[in-house]
Amino acid sequence: MKLSLACLGILFALLIATPAIADQVYIVGNPPDPGSGNCFPWGCAYNAEYQQVYGSSDFQGPLLIGDLEFYNTQYDSGSTQLPTGTWTITLATSTVVGVNTITGSFAGNLANSFNVQQVWTGDINQVWMFGNTLHIQLTTPYAYDPANGNLLMDVVGDGVTLPGGSTFFDVNSTGQFFTRVYCPGGVACDDAGTPELGYGLVTGFSNAIPEPGTLLLLGTGLLGAAGGIRRRIV
Is the pTM of this model over 0.85? Predict the structure, then answer.
């Protein structure tokens, strides 16, 4: 009986630990530029396309991206809300598009990529204060393997307005991590974006968390196995 209770304790600990492991965050671009930030595409009235490519060396291994995070820790603009509108995020993998090889053609960069997948569309409007983190939980998790190429993020903002002032998210300009392509002024630029090599938003990538039903099934199976162990020992 004592052994079976010990087994149950171990199994219960594993169940508790599983979500924590799955929710690990990989932050690309730390440390951010001190006292600086940028409002494209999440913090101002950006009604255009935006792309940011992350080098494959930024990642240590495959991950199922379930959540994107952007940070507001360096520059306090006094904003009280994030913009409102509709944003659409597409993720892709590319061996052609890279930190030093991205072009100003949004369509061309996507065409030179594979595993192109729309992962989220929605509104990010929310009450805001300096120090907050923007979490975007993807409706479709994205399987990314850095062994296959660089990671390209494509964002399109539509009908975006600014109810609470601009928010400036953390950036890194060291040239080590990523590059962005943007439309000056946040106005659509007809597939003629401006590349800014070695500059972009510090970004967190979280592994997708298993669905509650999956965890329940896992727990039921483990507990059943523990019961079998107890019956054999008793």
Answer: no
